[in-house]
Amino acid sequence: MYGFLIGVGVLLLLSIIWMVYRIQTLVSVVKGSDKKVASGSNKINAILFVLFLLGTGILMFWYSIKEFDNYQLPIASEHGVVTDRLFWVTMAVTGIVFLITHILLFIFPYKYQYKENRKATFYPDNNKLEVIWTAVPGVVLAGLVLTGWMAWSDITAPAPENAHVVEIMGYQFAWDVRYPGKDNVLGDYDYRLITASNSHGVDFTDKNAIDDFPSPKVVIPKGEPVLFKIRARDVLHSVFAPHMRLKMDAVPGMPTRFWFVPTKTTEEMRAELNNPEFEYEIACTEICGRGHFSMKKVIEVVEPEAYQKWLAEQKSFIQQNPSLAESLPAEMKELADIQLSESKK
Amino acid sequence: MATASVANHDVHAHDHHDHEHHDNFITKYIFTQDHKMIGKQFLVTGIFWAIIGGFLSILFRLQLGFPEMNLEWLRPLLGGWIDETGKLDPTFYLALVTMHGTIMVFFVLTAGLSGTFSNFLIPLQIGARDMASGFMNMLSYWFFFLSSVIMFISLFIKTGPAGGGWVVYPPLSALEQAIPGSGLGMTLWLIAMTFFIASSLLGGINYITTVINLRTKGMSFSRLPLTIWAFFLTAVIGLLSFPVLFAAALLLVFDRSFGTSFYLSDIYIGGEALPNTGGSPVLYQHLFWFLGHPEVYIVLLPALGITSEVIATNSRKPIFGYKAMIISMLGITILSFIVWAHHMFVSGMNPFLGSIFMFLTLIIAVPSAVKVFNYLTTLWRGNLIFTPAMLFSIGLVSFFISGGLTGIFLGNSAIDIQLHDTYFVVAHFHLVMGSASFFGLLAGVYHWFPKMFGRMMDARLGYVHFWLTFVGVYMVFFPMHYIGIAGFPRRYYSWTNFEFTNMYTDLNMFVSVAAIITFAAQFIFLFNFFYSMYRGRKATLNPWRSTTLEWTTPINPGHGNWPGEIPTVYRWPYDYSKPGAAEDFIPQTVPFSQTPESNLPHEQELVKLEEEIMKEESEVLVANENKH
Question: ipTM for the complex?
Answer without folding.
Answer: 0.93
